[in-house]
Amino acid sequence: MPHKPFKAVIPAAGLGTRFLPATKAMPKEMLPVVDKPAIQYVVEEAAAAGITDILVIIGRNKNAISNHFDSVPELEVKLTEKGDADRLQRVMASSDMADIHFVRQGDPKGLGHAVLRARAHVGDSPFAVMLGDDLIDERDALLTTMLAEHERTGAAIVALMEVDPAHIGMYGVAAAEQTDDPDVVRVTGLVEKPKPEDAPSNLAVIGRYVLSPAIFDILERTEPGKGGEIQLTDALQELAADPDGPGVYGVVFRGRRYDTGDRVDYIKAIVQLAADREDLGPELRPWFKDFAAKL
After folding, report:
1. In angstroms, rounded to a whole number, what is the distance separating the alpha carbons of residues 140 and 134?
2. Which of 92, 177, 251, 281 has the fewest CB atoms within 10 Å, measured from its CB?
3. How far apart are CA 54 and CA 39, in angstroms?
4. What pLDDT is stored for residue 1 in this prediction?
């Protein structure tokens, strides 16, 4: 039978407390990264991988996200009248790239709970979970590789990245076995935010997952774990430990990733992306050098 089309789920119900007071009234997912909100990069990544049915999990005070992906006829008319075709195209792109749906999480009880809220929309389709804190450079393949690996194996697929052991306690961490592919490992266990001395490896789970609907039954019975929240990591651990199931595999990403969940890393992401832009880089790069020389 042909494979069902993939859907995508983007959890966006967090409060963004690390960016207060900027996120008091603005969703953290709408903070600009150069000239687009962070969440638009994630939607563009899904669309580029061929996923056009996207569900965003939102909470209170997140209406700005749905407004952003809606059309704004009065703005489009003004730009048309001015003959500003470039800005018109960019404005329309955000509402044309995919079919975007929204559901409320209600009481935020962790990433696993947010994913569970997608059950009715996802149905029996395989789906990607994409966290807005992690932006993947469009020049580096990740999601397409993960989708292909899921189709090949039927397993749950997580994105992994080698990180400094000193920072390993910030992530879910995978115990893994090598496969014939140097960029794909079989995950034998997962630990959420371990102490460095307890970490099974330096392979950290970053914000991309490809899952089958089987994950929902596991999440339904998953008890709150670290932080009193329902952890997706705990459900994946159960899949990894099942000797009769397809298991969990990890795609090791070695490309460019921008972490926008931390204030310093958010600023670094803006600098890196702006410096690489053809329209901004030629002016910015010499300025960066002069500025750095004065520090």
Report:
1. 13
2. 177
3. 12
4. 45
Q: Residue 175 and residue 185: Cα distance in Å, rounded? A: 9
Sort residue 193 into left (φ over 0), alpha (ψ -120 to 50) or beta: left
Task: List, in sequence order, the alpha helices (H) in the chain.
Answer: 38-48, 63-68, 73-82, 85-96, 111-116, 119-122, 143-153, 214-221, 232-241, 263-276, 281-293
Q: How many CA atoms lie within 13 A of 82 on its CB side?
A: 11
The token pair at 57 is 């999990």
For the chain, the straight-line distance linking the first and the last C-alpha, in angstroms and rounded, comes to 61
Output the pLDDT for position 222: 83
Domains located in the chain, CATH noted: 7-261 (3.90.550.10)
How is residue 87 written in tokens?
């800005």
Q: Which residues of the chain fall below pLDDT 70?
A: 1-3, 226
- Cβ pair 100, 223 in contact under 8 A: no
**What is the C-alpha to C-alpha distance for residues 189 and 199, in angstroms, rounded to an integer?**
11
d(CA 23, CA 61): 10
Residue 109 confidence (pLDDT): 81
Q: DSSP class of residue 210?
A: E
Strands 134-136, 172-178: parallel, antiparallel or unpaired by DSSP?
unpaired
Bond prior to 2 in cis (omega within 30° of 0): no
Which residue bears the tokens 């932080």?
227
Residue-wise pLDDT tens digits, 233-249: 889 998 988 888 889 99
Residue type for position 5: P
